[in-house]
Design brief:
The complex is a heterodimer of chains A (about 290) and B (about 300).
Chain A lengths: L2 H11 L17 H25 L3 H4 L13 H8 L3 H30 L6 H13 L3 H13 L6 H24 L4 H9 L4 H30 L2 H6 L7 H10 L5 H21 L1 H8 L6
Helix pairs in contact in A: 2-13, 4-13, 5-8, 5-10, 6-8, 8-10, 10-13, 12-13
Chain B lengths: L19 H9 L3 H21 L2 E2 L9 E2 L3 H8 L1 H32 L6 H13 L2 H12 L6 H6 L9 H4 L1 H26 L3 H9 L4 H28 L4 H6 L11 H11 L3 H36 L1
Antiparallel strand pairs in B: 1-2
Helix pairs in contact in B: 2-14, 3-14, 4-9, 4-11, 5-9, 6-9, 9-11, 11-14, 13-14
Classes of the chains: A mainly alpha (about 290), B mainly alpha (about 300).
Amino acid sequence: MTSADISTAEAGLASAAPRRVAPRKKRGNSIPLGIVGWIVGIVFFFPVLWMVLTSFKTEAEAYTNTPHLFFSPTLSQYKAVFSSGLWPYVANSAFATIVSTILVLLLATPCAFALSLRPVRKTRDVLFFFISTKMLPVVAAIIPIYIAARDLHLLDNIFTLVILYTAMNLPIAVWMMRSFFLEVPGELLEAAEMDGAPLRRTVTEVILPVVAPGIAATALICCIFSWNEFFFAVNLTATQAATVPVFLVGFISSEGLYFAQLAAAATVATLPVILAGWVAQRQLVRGLSFGAIK
Amino acid sequence: MTTIAPPVAAARPARARPDRRRQGWVRRAPLLPALVFTIIVTQLPFLLTLWYSLQSWSLVRPGAEHFAGFSNYVDVFKDSQFRTTALNTVIMTVGTVLVAMVIGVALALLLDRKFLGRGIVRTLLITPFLVMPVAGALLWKTTLLDPTFGIVDFLFRPFGIGHFNWIGSFPLGSVMIEMIWQWTPFMMLLVLAGLQSQPKDILEAASTDGARPLQIFRELTLPHLRRYIELGIVLGAVYVVNEFDAVYMMTQGGPGISSANLPFYIYQRAFLGFQVGQAAAMGVVVVAATIIIATFALRLIFTSFSGTEQAA
């Protein structure tokens, strides 16, 4: 499907690209629709915009009965956030995100391969099993996981999160990658087989180039989910292995006394994922719908 | 739990040759690491939960664990708080998913039409979904819904509703609004994918035949979208029913348990009340309910999945 490229291209070119002359009036640019569209878009985006704006305010400016849209921006909130010990949390989040994503790819790629290009018996049962693990409530598993981690002295250990994030993302990755692998043209494979190419060469020279963008998209989605994950992090870590979402929880106890600083911390925490998600809009849907929608 | 019956569906015709049987293990090998890993990390805990649910076990009284049979389950069903939180979970899930879907369909229809800067508007609309749920909930709690300094308060002040404690007065509603804000983009994207896969020539033919836009929408577009809407509702429900972050950040389930859902209540029981046995029994009940619902849900996803597979 080519819809993936459209989404990113659209964002940049929507206004500049020469448009096909619409045969009928309905297909052309509509000004009223544009106005409605922009209003709705800004309403939905507003909380994020407000977060970013607030993060550049002083606390005094953030605490006004009448919100200030114009103010002299300051970086002091960001300085405060970074000097209040955010870095170890960022390092933990980054470590858990990157290592778990690598593990997911290592496990999911051969699995998706076996389930798509060389289907084994009971392919459906295996796929079904993977998706069913995502349907079960995490909360029912947290107690034994907590007790196991405690008994193995793995509480507050970043590798515990790595393992759990790998398990959390693996089903999505398998489904998503399978949907990409299914797009490898059968003729290519047959041609390789006719040439008597060994399996390894078929994989590296025929399949991988075709599915590489899909693997990248899968990796990105796994990263987003791991970075945003909170439930395991808050229950299984304390000081050593806590991640960025756990850092944000610290602001709850102060009952919003520091709006501007909180906004700066939230901006730092959310920005990487927002940027990544903008780049990969379509793939996000594909991942979340387990590859059902391309 | 692997006890859900697999959906009855014809297996995909394999591309393999007849000597498959001998090669069986070679073919299966690439699959095994992922399968074994997933079974150990995700299934073993559930089996343990099942075992724990039959124990009388409190973390504050170590050494006092003993087999308790089904007494934890009896307690769960007698627990009125469990029933309240179960009801909250249903309200939260159904409300969030349906409202997000209705708005999502409207936004998708909007984005399916051409207007200036459509790509940018789409990017703006998608953003709430990307916001870290913990940060999103914090934002709503503080900068938006705060009774004094929140922007919502400012917007409602001209209507005589000043300094209104939104979260305190409507805890469940406030959490749901935050979740609707986060989930609408997802629904919108699914429906938009559906709209864009609709064959344009049929629509044009209907239009030249003199069909009114509303008629086209009802007779052609809506039936076509049905599969996408169903998929969105199922997937949304799967994610929303497990929601923990928004409840934890915005209300801590309070006041009382008025905005607690099952994940949060079980968490409270296990980690604040240290009642391992009881929390495990609740977990098992939730799993059982989920399995019943998920069996239908999975069937639907498989249908959708094979549908797109044929189309691809």
